[in-house]
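Before surveying the methods themselves, let us examine one representative protein, pairing a chain with its fold in token form.
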Amino acid sequence: MNLIPFFFRKLGFKWMFIIGMLTWVLRMSLFALSATEGIVVFMLIGIALHGFCWDFFFVTGYLYTDKVAGEKIKGQAQGLIIMFTQGIGMFIGSFFSNYTLPEQVIMY
């Protein structure tokens, strides 16, 4: 998190988002490989990538929202982005996982 200002100067918002999305894909792929192949190292690397994923995607999104929103609505814009990413988004995700998860889980 301390390196975010350095990366902003070098990369900018667009590349920070792209790197953030790619690290999420890499992280989830490593978790999937760990689950199917049973390689614990992939899981540990995926756990270690969490900070990069969070900083490069979510923190960048919060900073971008703060930059784009006007002075009068900065608080409302931040509240809206939190509601969508960690409120409604998690609710909808857990709702739909109820239908997809039983098909994906192998019962022993």
User: Anything to note?
Assistant: The chain is about 85% helix and 0% strand. The first helix runs from residue 4 to 37.
